[in-house]
Design a protein that fits this description.
The chain is of the alpha/beta class. The protein has five helices and five strands, in the order βββαβαβααα. A hairpin with a 2-residue loop joins β2 and β3.
């Protein structure tokens, strides 16, 4: 099964593509869809939609996993990220690929075994589970890979319906 994990954002949308077969992970790709600061926000949203659509077309994932938003301070940032996340979700829906959403707590619990784990712990465990030499950069890509791992670990209950 090929899983595309997405860490939503509007400046950087992290992505990670993994194959998960027989409890074994293989990293196919990771990186980010970047948008340029200073460009009209609507054009940035278009770039996100196009970038995610290109990833879906290139890797043909069986499922897509995306992190749910959690903000408690900056409302303007939260709204912008939510709009970008909406464009990402739209690209997934239009491609007809099943989409699963996970909270940060679920991702941490799945990857580290502790829902209140620190970001650094999640990144290091992601590196270990995927047998990578170093933690993927940018951080958004590492986060996206963690979301993909969470989806794979949840496959017994969620993906069994496919």
């Amino acid at each position: 099964m090929v899983i595309l994990g997405i860490d939503p954002g509007y400046a950087i949308v992290g992505f990670g593509v993994i194959s998960y077969e027989g409890n074994h992970f293989k990293v196919l790709s990771y990186g980010a869809v970047n948008t340029k600061a200073g460009v009209d926000f609507s054009l940035r949203l278009n770039d996100i939609y196009d970038g995610v659509t290109q990833l879906i077309n290139k890797y043909k994932p069986d499922v897509i996993s995306i992190e749910k938003l959690f903000f408690n301070t900056n409302n303007k940032t939260a709204i912008n990220v939510a709009e970008a996340r909406g464009c990402t979700i739209l690209a997934c829906v239009k491609a007809g690929v099943p989409l699963y959403e996970y909270t940060p707590l679920q991702v941490k619990q799945s990857v580290v075994g502790y829902g209140r784990a620190e970001k650094r712990q999640v990144m290091e465990m992601t590196r270990m589970l995927l047998n990578l030499e170093k933690i993927p950069k940018p951080d958004d890509a590492a986060d996206a890979l963690a979301v993909a791992i969470c989806c794979a670990h949840s496959s017994g209950s969620l993906l069994g319906r496919l």
